[in-house]
Write a structure and sequence with these properties.
This protein is an alpha+beta fold. The protein has 2 domains: about 150 residues, Arc Repressor Mutant, subunit A, CATH 1.10.10; about 150 residues, Trna Endonuclease, Chain: A, domain 1 (3-Layer(aba) Sandwich), CATH 3.40.1350.80. About 35% of the residues lie in helices and about 15% in strands. The chain is built from 11 helices and 11 strands. Strand 10 and strand 11 form a beta hairpin. The relative contact order is 0.08.
Length: about 325
């Protein structure tokens, strides 16, 4: 593997700084991310061999405050880009405007009222952000990140419309704790783990927990593979997968709020997917109460189990020839 140049290492480090303060890098391709970093380095007046402590920032009149055209010249000269001199507006709209919005860069600090298309408009590093760069690689950098973040909220939270959603704390065996987004569906998942499994599956191991919003929340991939479980694609997995090592039973559990009990079709799909699994399979539909269960009773498949959170000590067995336990696999 070719050794990276000093310029490329400097770009990598700049991307670390951007990521630390929540710049939305995920919205850009890798090439676009690196161009953004080079443009920011031009605003900082940092050549590849310069020390981070030499970062230039706005101190008032006479400070380094390059125009977009000057930035293009700097980047092409020191960082191997080949940006056309006529692309200054593109550089502004696709890069500098985002850096300004993040709080890292000031737009025309000497003349804040200058029009966007004013060719004399310059860009300078915000003095509040100076230590993010000047202290990079030192013991004081983390404090600099925290100080900047107090003044400027993460831009990725704003642009990606992230919400501060309430979470549900869930305790797993061995003291492991996870969080699910607050929802009626996830409340049922919590009761499955904290009420159903301890009652009916002593010594259980949780191998998978999904979340409608967060997708996979917890997964014991190696353990599932040991049991020859099927390909772990989220859209095919039930809400909760738990294992009973004493009986070698694997519980596939659907938390039912507004959809997806273990219906006849779902039952058949899961049977086919687990045909090579070395554990016996138990299928469970979990409901909050009888009222919800009543809406779905016509869809519940035979040879599956039903559990109601409002009556946690009891189970309803849609059994063929037995109570709780795996049934003979189709075709076996």
């Amino acid at each position: 593997m070719a050794r990276k140049s000093g310029a490329e290492i400097r770009v990598d480090e700049t991307l670390r700084i951007l990521d630390a303060v929540g710049f939305p890098l995920a919205l850009r391709t890798a090439a676009m991310q690196r161009r953004l970093a080079r443009i920011l380095l031009a605003v900082c007046k940092l050549e590849p061999k310069a020390a981070w402590s030499e970062t230039s920032f706005w101190k008032g009149a006479g400070s380094w405050c390059p125009r977009s055209r000057d930035i293009i010249i700097f980047v092409n000269k020191h960082y191997g880009e080949n940006i056309s001199s006529g692309s200054y507006d593109d550089v502004r709209r696709k890069n500098l405007d985002f850096l300004v919005m993040s709080g890292l860069v000031l737009s025309s600090p000497a003349r804040p009222d200058a029009a966007n298309n004013d060719r004399t408009r310059g860009y300078a590093l915000n003095p509040v952000a100076a230590d993010l760069f000047r202290k990079f690689g030192t013991s004081g950098w983390k404090k600099a990140v925290a100080t900047f973040s107090e003044s400027y909220p993460r831009l990725d939270d704003k642009l990606l419309r992230k919400r501060d959603q309430k979470k549900i704390a869930v305790k797993l065996p061995a003291g492991v704790a996870i969080e699910l987004l607050e929802s009626s569906h996830n409340e049922i998942q919590k009761t499955i783990i904290e009420e159903f499994l301890p009652r009916f599956v002593p010594g259980f191991e949780v191998l998978y927990i999904g979340d409608a919003s967060l997708k996979t929340v917890f997964i014991a991939k190696d353990r599932l593979q040991e049991l020859n479980f099927f390909e772990l694609a989220h859209d095919r997995l039930p809400d909760v997968v738990a294992y009973d090592p004493a009986r070698n039973w694997l519980f596939l559990i659907e938390a039912v709020h507004s959809s997806n009990p273990v219906s006849h079709l779902r039952h058949l799909q899961l049977e086919e997917l687990t045909a090579k699994c070395t554990a016996g399979i138990v299928f469970v539909s979990a409901f909050k109460n009888r009222k919800t269960f009543a809406k779905w009773i016509g869809e519940i498949s035979w040879e599956t189990e039903v559990w109601l959170a409002e009556s946690p000590d009891h189970m309803i067995h849609f059994n063929g020839d037995r109570f709780l336990g795996p049934h003979k696999k189709q075709g076996a």
